[in-house]
Design brief:
The complex is a heterodimer of chains A (237) and B (338). With 237 residues, chain A is mainly beta. In chain A, a hairpin with a 2-residue loop joins strand 1 and strand 2. Chain A is globular, with a radius of gyration of 19 Å. In chain B, 35% of the residues lie in helices and 2% in strands. A two-stranded antiparallel sheet of chain B has the order 1-2. In chain B, strands 3-4 form a two-stranded antiparallel sheet. The relative contact order of chain B is 0.15. At the A-B interface, helix 1, strand 8 and strand 9 of A face helix 11 of B.
Chain lengths: 237, 338
């Protein structure tokens, strides 16, 4: 469970600011919003033409310095919800902006987050329970140029080779976006390059890895590795 | 003192306490109760009376309950229901339960009605359904021996109109809570599943098999629906655009609301057009009957092969699990009967 850290020795004298963190999305620099969904308008690193139909992802422990701006946030790009979070009373000064993609194991507790249960973001108990990190669904043109579905779902990786001895690996990852100077009310853009999920270090072949990836231990590790280059700092103003 | 009658001044309706199942309270955010229509004992009772009152139809032969029979989880087991003029609708009657946990508040198969209050307006005037006129209904109810007093007690005014009628019906509908099936008892540690039901639940939750949970909830979402709109591969071409006709977005064509999988034992036939008469047909559809189209949901697996090809045993077990969500206490609840 999350614990809030709001320690501040200079609480009475420090200047405070309101900080808005804005999540934006692009495909190798081309902006992506919900209006770009449901159309074959993107090409991944493997050359497959892709249509995005659903993109929801969880970020947690979003911190500016020692201040936790929000314990977790489910960004729903298609639904246009939680694209911004606002925190008040952030001390002015220079702070590191960090967050976790997904949930660390210690926070990834099955069924405890009612808002996430209510939007069906859970992971089945047979895979360890807890929550998805990301649900990225869409279509791609297969080798016969036919529409085919993909479900790029990231969760805590589980090796079920031996059903009596499941092996788990925390595939959430930390994102460090560097130092940001907060002088007054500030808006910070966090950019997700969706194309990176298919690119680096693993060039993703959707013809081979398109669905039933949740129970795929190796695929989960590969997706986690690809995710580390997905986020970057955008405009700060 | 103001100019209202003494009776209007003194009656204060009693707040109605919704009996929320423990599982719902433990797993889900609070149900949707509009600030401008809080539940009251008088409002719920009035809504129930109206729900079963045939005065709400043009020729006083049908009530809401004519198509929404409590014993059938508030459906009528017809593919399409006949209205008062003998014409059939084009969509299967949706069941009514756990409606306050539809957090997006989009109701009907195509999501065209926002809020329960608005939903209740449409069937009353629909020529294929109750084919009445709200102005006429208001006059009838106003002239009734009991209704003016009941509205006064529920809403503080004896002047009846469609807005108050639908508010009352919505209040009653929000009390229709189904959370006492065998599977609920299992989740509360009060019952054991059969091996078939247990395997069926695993098929439901297994992404490599049924993968039903992404749209139809889970033990952590006991509504057993995401209340979203999906094209589940029924047709390659669409005669009914569904959600797409509401949004105007072609990418929504062929999408319909995911119904809850609770109480399927009572709600046949299935799908928005009632095309499947048995649960076997439903399961076979997902197993080998998927039809490709441009808007088919990406969660539909192996569309080019017709579906996930469940084994005969898994199909039977999946059905057994689904039936474990039958809530006999709900359909026999005296509070919901006429």
């Amino acid at each position: 469970m999350f614990l809030f850290n709001a320690c501040n020795d200079d609480e009475n004298t420090e200047q405070k600011a309101t900080v808005t963190i804005k999540f934006t999305h692009n495909w190798d620099g081309t902006p992506v919003t919900s209006s770009d969904f449901n159309a074959f308008k993107f090409t991944n690193a493997n050359g497959e033409i892709v249509s995005i139909e659903r993109l929801r992802y969880l970020v947690s422990n979003i911190t500016l310095g020692t201040e936790i701006t929000k314990s977790y946030n489910l960004v729903n790009v298609g639904g246009n919800t939680n694209l911004e979070i606002t925190s008040e009373n952030i001390p002015t000064g220079t702070h590191e902006l960090n967050f976790i993609f997904g949930l660390k194991d210690v926070d990834n507790i099955d069924g405890v987050y009612l808002d996430l249960n209510s939007v069906s973001f859970n992971v089945p108990a047979m895979l360890g329970g807890g929550y998805h990190y990301m649900q990225f669904d869409g279509k791609y043109k297969d080798t016969n140029s036919q529409d085919a579905n993909f479900n790029y779902h990231t969760i805590k990786a589980v090796d079920r080779t031996d059903p009596t001895n499941l092996i788990f690996q925390d595939t959430s990852f930390e994102v460090h976006l560097g130092a940001i100077e907060i002088t007054d009310n500030t808006t910070i853009e966090i950019k997700m390059n969706i194309a990176e999920w298919f690119k680096n270090p693993n060039t993703w072949n959707l013809n081979e890895l398109n669905s039933v990836l949740m129970p795929n231990f190796e695929a989960q590790k590969m997706m986690s590795a690809n995710g580390t280059a997905v986020f970057s700092l955008g405009e700060v103003n | 003192m103001n100019c209202t009658s003494k009776e209007e001044e003194i009656y204060t309706p009693i707040p109605y306490s919704l009996e929320i199942p423990t599982l719902f309270a433990d797993k889900l955010i609070a149900p949707v109760i509009p600030a401008n229509n809080p539940l009251t004992v008088e409002g719920v009772a009035l809504g129930k009376k109206l729900f079963f009152d045939k005065k709400l139809s043009g020729d006083e032969t049908q009530s809401c309950a004519s198509c929404h029979n409590p014993q059938k989880a508030f459906t009528d087991n017809q593919q399409f229901s006949d209205g008062i003029d003998g014409f059939s609708g084009t969509r299967n009657t949706m069941p009514l339960f756990n409606l306050a946990w539809n957090f997006d508040e989009r109701f009907a198969w195509d999501g065209k009605e926002f809020s329960l209050e608005n939903q209740a307006l449409e069937p009353v005037t629909n020529p294929l359904e109750m084919h009445a006129n709200w102005t006429v209904i208001a006059v009838k109810l106003q002239q009734h021996a009991e209704y003016p007093t009941l509205f006064l007690q529920a809403f503080g005014t004896s002047k009846i109109d469609s807005a108050l009628v639908t508010k009352a019906i919505a209040q009653f509908e929000r009390t229709l809570i189904s959370g006492t099936s065998k599977f609920d008892q299992y989740l509360r540690g009060e019952a054991a599943l059969t091996p078939e039901e247990e395997n069926g639940f695993n098929v439901f939750m297994d992404e490599a098999k049924g993968d039903c949970f992404h749209c139809h909830g889970s033990n952590n979402n006991p509504i057993w629906s995401d209340n979203k709109f999906h094209n589940n591969g029924l047709d390659a071409t669409f005669t009914d655009l569904g959600f797409g006709a509401v949004t105007g977005d072609p990418s929504d064509n062929g999408k319909f609301k995911s119904p809850s999988i609770r109480n399927l034992a009572f709600t046949a036939p299935y799908m928005h057009d009632g095309r499947f008469t048995t649960l076997e047909e439903v399961i076979n559809h997902y197993s080998e009957g998927l039809q490709p189209s441009s808007t088919i949901d990406p969660l539909m697996k192996k569309v080019d092969q017709g579906g996930v090809a469940l084994s005969t045993q898994d199909k039977a077990d999946l059905k057994a699990f689904l039936l474990s969500l039958s809530d006999f206490e709900f359909i026999n609840n005296p509070a919901f009967q006429e």
